[in-house]
Amino acid sequence: MGSISLKQVTKSFGPVDVIKPIDLEIEDGEFVVFVGPSGCGKSTLLRLIAGLEDVTSGHIEIDGNDATTIPPAKRGLAMVFQSYALYPHMSVRKNIAFPLKMAKVDQAEIDRKVDDAARVLNLSDYIDRRPGQLSGGQRQRVAIGRAIVREPAAFLFDEPLSNLDAALRGNMRLEISELHQTLKTTMIYVTHDQVEAMTMADKIVVLRDGIIEQVGSPIELYKNPRNLFVAEFIGSPKMNIIKGAAAEALGAPTIGVRPEHIEVSKTKPKADGAWKGTVGVSEHLGSDTFLHMDAEGVGTINVRADGEIELRHGDTAWLSPQVSKIHRFDAAGMAA
Amino acid sequence: MATQNSRSAARLMLAPAVILLLGWMLVPLTMTLWFSFRKYLPLRGGDQGWVGFDNYVRFVSSSSFWPSVQTTLIIVGGVLVITVVFGILLALLLDQPMWGQGIVRILVIAPFFVMPTVSALVWKNIFMDPVNGLFAHLWKFFGATPIEWLSQASVQSIIMIVSWQWLPFATLILLTAVQSLDGEQLEASEMDGAKPLQRFGYIILPHLARAITIVVLIQTIFLLSIFAEIFVTTGGAFGTKTLSYLIFQRVLESQNIGLGSAGGIYAVILANIVAIFLMRIVGKNLDA
Fold first, then answer.
1. How far apart are CA A198 and CA A184, in angstroms?
2. Closest chain A residue to B194 measured between Cα atoms?
C-alpha cells in the first residue's frame, strides 16, 4: 500500500549536486524521519518523492511501480507543507474538501469524508472559518486534514512543526504519532530537530550534504552511531567529543561520551581515569542538571547530572565516563 | 501609545492639511453648484441671475445626454475589461523566469509614461490613419479594404487607445500580486490534483481579487474623466462624446457656464453611483 524505494536517485541544481546517489527502502506503514542540518538535502529528497522536483537520475518506485515520471497528483501521496499552504480564501471545509473536489468525488461522499476528518482532528467547531481566523495548531490540523481525506499511500511532512511554539510542538508531535498509530499509513517526515526524529520515528535517515550518513531505528543510532557526525547529531545534549591524550588513554584517536554517561562526584573517586574539572555554568532544570565543565587536559565537557546535585560556578568536581558506553572513532571519524 | 494629549496635538497638526484639502474640494464644488443655478453666458450678456433648475432640465433633455452617459459607461467598461484580462495574462507571463526580465518589465510599463495627448496622436496618425497608417497597410497587405478607424469604429478605437495606456498600470499592480503568491500553495494544489486551469481558477484568481479591486477602482476614477484622447482624435464626433466631453462642449463651445455646471453636477452624481456599485460589488474584497 505504501512502500517507497529510491534507487540511485540524484538531484542537481545546475552545477550543484544537492542529492548524491541515494538508495533507500521505506516499508509500508513505516514512520520514517529524514533528519539533518539545514542544507543537507532532506527537503529536496522529500520533494523528489512528492514529484514536485524531477530527479536528475535514478528511479523512484512506489508500491513496486516506477513513479519517476508520474506527476505529483497521480502518485497517491499527500504532503503537509511547512507553511501549511492552506488556501486563504476558502473555509476550513473547502480546504479539506479541495483534493476530493479535484478528484471529482461525489458531493455527499465529500461531505462525509470532510466531516470524519474534522471530527478526528477536532476541527468540527471551526469548519466554516477561514485559515486566517485559526491559530497555528489549528491550521496545522487543517493541513493534515486535507492530507488525510485523500487516503494517500503515504504522507509527506515537510518540517510541519517548525512554525509552532514549544508547547504546541510537543502536543502536535504526539498527535501526529497517534495519527500514525491509527492510520498505519507510511509517513515520511522531514525535520532538522533531532528530538522530533528520536521521539516519532520508526526509522531515522540521517542526511548530510546530500548523502545518507546512517539509517536505523532511533535507539540504534543512539547506541551505535556509524560516524562522528551521527554521533554528534543524535542525542541531546550533544555528545562530548574528546581528542588528544585523554582519548588515546581510552584507546582511540577520538572518543565520544554522552553527557548522560558521565558520573560526577565532588570527591576524588578511588578508581583511576576520572577527569578533574571546574564547573563553568550549571543549568538546574529540576529533573536534571546540565553542567558545563572545564576538565583539565580534556577540554569542555557537558554532563547531565542528577537534578539535586549541589554544584555551582567555580566548584571542582571529578568526572568518570562509563567505560562501556564510550564511543571510539578512528582518524577518519568512523566508528571503530 | 497615543495618549489623550498627543491625540489632540496630532489633530491640531493635521488640521491645516485637512482644511486645505477640504477647501480644495469644496470651493470648486460650491462654485459649480452656484453657477449651475444661474444663467451665465460669458459672451452673451454675462451673469443673468437665478434660473432655478432650468439648466438641469435642459442638460438632461438634450438629445446628447443619454448617449453621452452610455458612451462613458461603454468606454470605462471596455477599458476595464481589456486591461484586467490582459493585465492578468501579462502579469502571469512576466512572472515566468526569462532572460532580460528587468528590461522587458520596463518596456511593459513604458506606455504609462507617454502623455495621453501624445499617445492618442501617435495612435491616430501612425496606426489608425486610413491611408498611411500601419493598420491600413496591414489590411491592404491581406487584400482587405482599410477600416477608417476613427469614424467607422470610433468608440472601439478610443477603447483601444485608452486600454493601451492603462494596461501597464494594471499589469504592474497585478504582477506584484502574482509575485506575492505563496509558491507552496500552488504546489499544494498541484499535489491535490488541480490542473493548471484549476490552479488558476481556484488559487491564483482568488489571490488576485484584491489587486483586481484596486485596479478597477483606481482606473474607474481616472477613466470617467478621460478627455485628451477624445479631443485629439474624434473631437467628440462619431458617437464618442462622453459626459465630460459634453460638459466641455457646453461650457467652451456653446459658452454656457450655467448649463455646463449643471452637467458637472450630473457627472459627480454619475461618478458616485458608479462608485457605490463598485464598492458594493468588489469592495468586500478589501475587507479580508
1. 19
2. A102
